[in-house]
Amino acid sequence: MSEAVFEKMATLLSSKKGINKELISIDSSFEELGLDSLDSIELIADLEEEFSVNIPNTELQGIKTIRQAVDGLSKAMQ
Fold first, then answer.
1. CATH number assigned to the domain covering 2-77
2. Can you say whether the dihedral through the CA atoms of 19, 33, 17, 78 is positive or negative?
3. Is the dihedral of CA 2, 19, 59, 50 positive or negative?
4. What is the mean pLDDT for each group of 10 consecutive residues in the chain (78 residues)?
5. pTM over 0.70
6. 39: Cβ–Cβ under 8 A, 6 or more apart, which residues?
7. Taken in order 46, 25, 34, 70, is the CA torsion positive or negative?
8. Contact 54, 48 (CB under 8 A)
9. DSSP 46-77
């Protein structure tokens, strides 16, 4: 499931923020991709809606990388 989450995240970043999908890796930080905290919250909210899950706000604060977001979403889907 994490691969599907990563692919959806990369697609959203590409379409909504104009980031080349080839530049997005699982180890990219939001900062490296030019995203600020509001961008990252919006991205995660879009993904929560897409996958019909909810990541607790306490966990959202620690998400700074693509991997952390994928892990958080995958965990919420279990």
1. 1.10.1200.10
2. positive
3. negative
4. 89 94 95 93 92 89 93 90
5. yes
6. 17, 30
7. positive
8. yes
9. HHHHHHT----HHHHTT--BHHHHHHHHHHHH
Q: Domain residues of the chain, as ranges? A: 2-77
Q: Do 30 and 64 form a contact (C-beta atoms < 8 A)?
A: yes
Backbone angles phi, psi at 65, to 5 degrees: -130, 165
Distance CA 42, CA 52 (A): 15
Q: How far apart are CA 17 and CA 48, in angstroms?
A: 18
C-alpha to C-alpha distance for 66 and 61, rounded to whole angstroms:
14
Residue 59, burial from CB neighbour count under 10 angstroms (0-12, 13-18, 19+): middle
**pLDDT tens for residues 19-30?**
999 999 999 999
